[in-house]
Design goal:
300 residues, 12 helices, disordered C terminus
């Protein structure tokens, strides 16, 4: 029960990032550069504070138990921080142009397609069903952004695809991390100087409205900072495939948030593209899991 609650809250937080960005940026309540900077800096503060508290608790427990080595600091890497910065910046600029639901869908599809493509480049050989799933997801993405009266602006769609590819790269860089939370905190902290610079530039461009500042702080401190903390509390008890499957819910939750909180419409084109993309990704993930199980059985 606790695992289900943690996972649900984490998915709500991830979807909230899309809704908050669109609320803040859709009507110009804040400059996208300032929004990105505030999100990164506030997220870094929350993650660093949590790590400090955990460090003190671990140190106290270690002292009570006797001498031992306690690792607690933020780690991360510069490549990870660069990928995080590129994701956050392109994400914010894209949401100036793209509505909540298509933005979240393009982001999610780009993450999954990018990671699958990287696995192929590295020598993985997907099964036929995986190729079908990948082709469906990519085809649905092309259908969503192909020119029409209801298609999202191409520039915004490209920026969101860059954000997704950057997040996929961030995930690949962090794969095998011994402490995903500490590495995430370290990456956010490394982004603080760039974040402060973005805030200054954004404030020079124009003065944000109060609600824009609030949305940016909520995205950084709550949806990002606390959201990652909750997700990494649940993640160790989820298989890689199950973790990927539960993330299929994020675009749907974001779309619902866009409808309820912003009044966005869900047209037939978006609904069909969503079904094709999520169905294709689900098929590819299921086929990958099946292939992995067969490989493990054959090796035992």
């Amino acid at each position: 029960m606790r695992l289900a609650i943690l996972t649900t809250v984490a998915m709500l937080a991830f979807a909230a990032n899309s809704v908050l960005a669109r609320l803040a940026l859709g009507d110009g309540a804040i400059d996208p550069l300032a929004y990105t900077g505030i999100r990164l800096v506030s997220g870094a503060l929350v993650l660093a504070a949590i790590l400090v508290l955990r460090s003190r608790r671990s140190a106290t427990s270690a002292e009570a138990a006797g001498p031992t080595l306690v690792g607690s600091g933020a780690v991360g890497s510069w490549p990870g921080a660069l990928a995080l910065l590129l994701y956050a910046l392109s994400f914010s600029i894209a949401y100036v142009m793209v509505a909540t639901a298509p933005g979240a869908l393009i982001l999610f599809a780009s993450v999954q397609i990018g990671m699958l493509a990287w696995a192929v480049v590295r020598g993985d050989r997907p099964a036929p069903l995986e190729w079908i799933g990948i082709a469906l997801a990519f085809g649905g993405l092309v259908y969503l952004v192909s020119p029409s009266l209801v298609a999202p602006p191409l520039g915004g769609a490209i920026l969101m695809a860059i954000a997704g590819a950057s997040w996929g790269a961030y995930s690949l860089i962090g794969r095998g991390s011994r402490s995903a939370l500490a590495d995430t905190a370290g990456n956010f902290v490394r982004c603080v100087p760039a974040g402060l610079a973005l805030v200054l530039v954004g404030l020079v461009r124009f003065v944000p409205r109060p609600e824009g500042l609030v949305y940016a702080l909520m995205s950084g401190a709550i949806a990002s900072g606390l959201g990652y903390i909750i997700w990494y509390a649940a993640l160790p008890r989820l298989s890689r495939t199950r973790a990927a499957f539960v993330q299929l819910t994020v675009p749907a939750i974001a779309a619902a948030g866009g409808v309820v909180l912003i009044g966005e419409a869900l047209g037939p084109r978006l609904l069909l593209a969503t079904a094709i993309i999520l169905g294709g990704v689900a098929l590819a993930l299921a086929a990958s899991q099946r292939r992995g199980t067969r490989t493990n059985d054959g090796a035992s």
